[in-house]
């Protein structure tokens, strides 16, 4: 009898575990699937409620309202450009700084680390930051998307901690062979840091892709510098205003399209449009993300 009980325990555990995992998967995926269903459902029909995982009436009018203005395509490429350039430069500079402060022979590594960490706790505020950007002549410039976020204190600490887990013998043997700091960094440190670099790359890329407030503050007067998130934010505001003031017409096709949707439906379409690029990239970085966070955040 006891043997039969012992044999049943793995089956019961696996069944219970499967049920719990399926329930968690449903809870996790439901908000996204519901948003996807709402985005393909007519806006006026969505107001009736009852949209869960499947549209009641299929339509693409919400997406046509998003893409009807020609500015969305240019803004998309601006967002792609700022994300790629900022991610590459931030990875390169942050990893170099992390490698420098990880070296025990660098006498100023502790003061430099303290100064960098202090920036995580103290911030001058929005107005001083704006005047700093203005004094640097970065207003209405594409570089305003790149320069302020080149170095991240948190990302530097993650990369530095990961580098400190690497055997010191690798660096010492490279120096014995005559390699300098740059050769050691590019030939040994960078290849071994792929997991943590992929993790930091995902952090930076998601932050750059989702950013719109810097466009609003520093580049709103230049249409050619408008980003996808900023255009989507303006579109959502226009949809809310058009539905609350149907008599207001600004004379373009976008207004007519917005009058056919509701803020809920246009918000759902905007969410899907903004999240698809990150969802496409994330599966390729997922294994590095988990591995990099595990090794880059804990030091034995």
UniProtKB/TrEMBL annotation:
Chief localization: membrane
Please give the SUPFAM superfamilies that the UniProt record associates with this protein.
MetI-like
Q: Which Pfam families match?
A: BPD_transp_1
Q: Which domain of life is it from?
A: Bacteria
Q: Which UniProt keywords apply?
A: Cell membrane, Membrane, Transmembrane, Transmembrane helix, Transport
* GO cellular component labels: plasma membrane
Q: Quote the subcellular location field of this record.
A: Cell membrane
User: Matching Gene3D superfamilies, A to Z?
Assistant: MetI-like (1.10.3720.10)
UniProt record, GO biological process: transmembrane transport
Per the similarity annotation, which family is this? Answer: Belongs to the binding-protein-dependent transport system permease family.
Q: Identify this protein by name.
A: Putative aldouronate transport system permease protein
Q: Which organism is it from?
A: Paenibacillus taihuensis
Q: What is the lineage of its organism?
A: Bacteria, Bacillati, Bacillota, Bacilli, Bacillales
């Amino acid at each position: 009898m006891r043997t039969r009980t012992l044999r049943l325990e793995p089956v019961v555990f696996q069944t219970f575990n499967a049920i719990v995992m399926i329930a968690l998967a449903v809870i996790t995926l439901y908000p996204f699937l519901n948003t996807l269903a709402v985005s393909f459902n007519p806006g006026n029909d969505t107001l009736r409620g009852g949209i869960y995982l499947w549209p009641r009436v299929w339509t693409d009018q919400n997406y046509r309202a998003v893409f009807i203005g020609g500015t969305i395509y240019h803004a998309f490429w601006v967002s792609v450009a700022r994300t790629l350039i900022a991610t590459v430069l931030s990875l390169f500079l942050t990893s170099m700084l992390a490698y420098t402060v990880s070296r025990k022979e660098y006498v100023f590594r502790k003061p430099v680390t303290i100064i960098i960490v202090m920036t995580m706790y103290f911030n001058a505020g929005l107005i001083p930051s704006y005047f700093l950007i203005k004094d640097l002549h970065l207003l209405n410039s594409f570089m305003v998307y790149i320069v302020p976020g080149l170095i991240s204190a948190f990302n530097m600490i993650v990369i530095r901690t990961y580098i400190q887990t690497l055997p010191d013998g690798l660096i010492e043997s490279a120096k014995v062979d005559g390699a300098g700091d740059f050769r050691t960094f590019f030939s040994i440190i960078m290849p071994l840091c792929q997991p943590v670099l992929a993790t930091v790359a995902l952090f930076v890329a998601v932050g750059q892709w989702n950013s719109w407030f810097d466009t609003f503050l520093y580049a709103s007067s230049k249409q050619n510098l408008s980003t996808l998130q900023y255009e989507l934010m303006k579109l959502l505001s226009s949809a809310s205003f058009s539905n609350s003031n149907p008599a207001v017409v600004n004379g373009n096709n976008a207004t007519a399209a917005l009058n056919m949707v509701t803020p809920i439906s246009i918000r759902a379409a905007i969410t899907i449009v903004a999240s698809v690029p990150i969802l496409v990239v994330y599966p390729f970085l997922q294994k590095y993300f988990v591995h990099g966070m595990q090794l880059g955040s804990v030091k034995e």
